[in-house]
Amino acid sequence: MISVAEALARVLASAPKPVTEESVSIEAALGRTLASDLHALRTQPPFANSAMDGYALRAADTAPSLARLRVIGESAAGRAFTGAVGAHEAVRIFTGAPMPQGADAVLIQENAAREGDLLVAKTRETSRHNVRDAGIDFVEGELLLPAGRRLSPRDLALAAAANHPTLAVRRRPRVAILATGDELVRPGDALGPSQIVASNNYAIAGIVAACGGESVDLGIAADEMGALARSFRRAQEIEADILVTLGGASVGDYDLVQRALVDAGLELGFWRIAMRPGKPLMQGRLGAMRVLGLPGNPVSSVVCAILFLAPLLRALAGDPQAGADVSEPAALGADVAANDMRQDYLRATLARDAGGALVATPFTSQDSSLVKLLARAQCLVVRPPHAPATRRGEACRIIRLDEWGL
Fold first, then answer.
1. What's the pLDDT tens digit per position in 150-191?
2. Given Cys at both, which of 97, 152, 215, 384 links 208, Cβ 3.0 to 4.6 Å?
3. What phi and psi values does residue 139 have, to the nearest 5 degrees?
4. For residues 32 and 20, what is the distance between their CA atoms, to the nearest angstrom?
5. What distance in Å separates the CA atoms of residue 169 and residue 21, rounded to the nearest whole number?
6. 259 backbone dihedrals φ, ψ, rounded to 5°
C-alpha cells in the first residue's frame, strides 16, 4: 500500500497540463476556471463622483459655519452638470453622480439647509470628503483575476464592471462514471432478491459538478468482461478526460474491473492506499483517458472522490492550488482510539463551542456502507497513520463536506 500523499502526487502527475480553453459569455461563466489573467478594460469609476446625496462645492467655502452658497444646478447619475462650480457656489448632487468641475467636496444633505437657491452649510467640509476619485476601484490594464481562478458570482460582477462580455475559460473536464456489479439497479427499477439500488454515481456526479467538471453517466455494467469492455470503449468514444469506475476494484472473484481494464490496455499506476475507508482505490491510464477505480462502498467512494478526483479535476482545469491541503483545525467532540498504519477519515458532525471554535464529533459507527450517516455528516476528521489515542477537546484536522456539494 502507498500513502495518501504519494497517491495524490501520482494522480496529479497524470495531469501535467490543463485541458484546452474556450470563450464563453459572462452569463455562462459561473463556476468556470479562467484560462488566462483577467485585466481591466476600463477604469472604475471613470470619473470622480459623489459618495452621498448632498451638494458639491468647494470645501473652503464652508468656513465659517453657516456659510451661505448659491445653488447653480444639479448633477445626477447619468446626467452630469456641465458647468463649473465657482466661489460660494454649489450643485445639488446625488450618489454616483459626476463631480462638477471646480468642486472638491460633498456636503451631505443632512448638514445643509435650503432657502430657495441659497444653501446654508451647517458644517465645515474638508477637501475630497464624500468624493470617490476616478480609479479608486481599479484602473484600465490592472490585473483583476489570475488564471486558474474558479469564477464566483463576485468574480463575474468584477469582470462585468471591467467591461468583459466574454471570458477565456478552461473547458469543463469530462468525467465518465460507470457503476459496476450484478447487484445494482437504478432507482425505481424492479429489485431482485439479491439486489440493491445504485447510489454512488449520484454523489460522484455531484462532486464533479462542484469541481467545475461535467459528468456522463455510463449506467451500470454487469460483472462480465464483455460488458465492461464495451463501457470502457464508450468512455473513450465520448473523449472522457477521466473514467471513474465504481466498485469491482477489490480482490473478490467477481471484482473484474481491474482485469478488464488491463485487458483493454490500462497502464496501472497504483492500486491500494493506506487509508480507511478507500483502501482498494485504483489509478491508471487508458490511452489518453485517466482512470480512477473507486471502491463500491458509498462512503469509501465519496472519500476517495474528495481526496483524489476533486484535485485531479482542478488540475485539469488549470487550478495552481489543485493539490493544496483542504483540511482545517478543529477540536474533537469525543475521544478517539489510537490509529493503525492507515490514515483514517471519520465521518463527524460539526458545531461551535461557547468560544466559537469548531468542534468535530465522529459518529460511533464508521461502517463505510452507511449512506444515512454520510448524509448527516458535515466533515471528515483526518487521523494520520499511527496517531495516538486522542481525548475530547484535543486538536484535530477536518475536511468540510459542503465544499464538495455534499
1. 999 999 999 999 999 999 999 999 999 999 999 999 999 999
2. 215
3. -120, 155
4. 13
5. 5
6. -60, -45
- Residue 385 exposure: Cα atoms within 13 Å on the Cβ side: 10
User: 204, 65, 78: which is closest to 122 by C-alpha?
Assistant: 65
CATH 2.40.340.10 fits 328-404, yes or no: yes
CB-CB contact of 334 with 371 (8 Å): no
Euclidean distance between CA atoms 144 and 39, whole angstroms: 5
pTM: 0.88
Class of domain 49-132 as given by CATH: mainly beta
CATH architecture designation of domain 4-20+171-316: 3-Layer(aba) Sandwich (3.40)
Task: Give the cell for residue 373.
Answer: 450517516
How many Å apart are CA 158 and CA 162, to the nearest integer? 6
4-20+171-316 and 21-44+137-170: same fold?
A: no
Contact 278, 309 (CB under 8 A): no
Show me where the domains of the chain are located: 4-20+171-316, 21-44+137-170, 49-132, 328-404
Asked if residues 406 and 207 have their Cβ atoms less than 8 Å apart, the reply is: yes
Query: What's the rounded Cα separation, in Å, for the pair 273 and 271?
Result: 7
